[in-house]
């Protein structure tokens, strides 16, 4: 089951703490770019309903689902009240970090997606300075209470569900420092890290596509065209201009 209180505390941390605001700005920029060119009829954000990560998407129907707060749909993300193959876009901002059933949450997201639908997930990277701080500090406070699922494991889970990995982005290279002025001093790491050590980012974003397996294009069976010479012969002497020409030449002689 999801822990609504833990996700609610994480949402408050994003909005209030200096480090949370830094991370929120990074993830908002990622989602704005990732969802901008996704089309369809229905899009759903699961969790963190206090922050609109679908703002830059042009799909007409956008829903918010969460177990707490004031979403449009109150539900457990591990058991979504949506029909199978009914949504074109599903986003999970840290939806696998703050649940005891990450496999089930991912399976439900795959179930409700239409073929060729997009799934976008963000999560904390354990192989980063954020993961190091979590090991040193412990898991009593947010966001360090999250699961911190590794990127290779996420890709394995996607593969098992036949969700094709399309793209990966990385963000939050600065050390997880609490003070704003300290974060500003390490701002250079955003560009340096993306160029030199992208896999050491504090947060990753993954875009996956639900492919429809087993489809085959059926084409009509056209009858093979008869060769031109065969058609001329089949037409008979009285309808064959070449034959008539030959006969005329014989009569003239």
From TrEMBL:
InterPro entries: Methyltransf_11, SAM-dependent_MTases_sf. Keywords: Methyltransferase, Transferase. The keyword DNA damage does not apply. One of its GO terms (biological process) is methylation. GO terms for molecular function: methyltransferase activity. Residues 73-121 form the Methyltransferase type domain. This is Methyltransferase domain-containing protein.
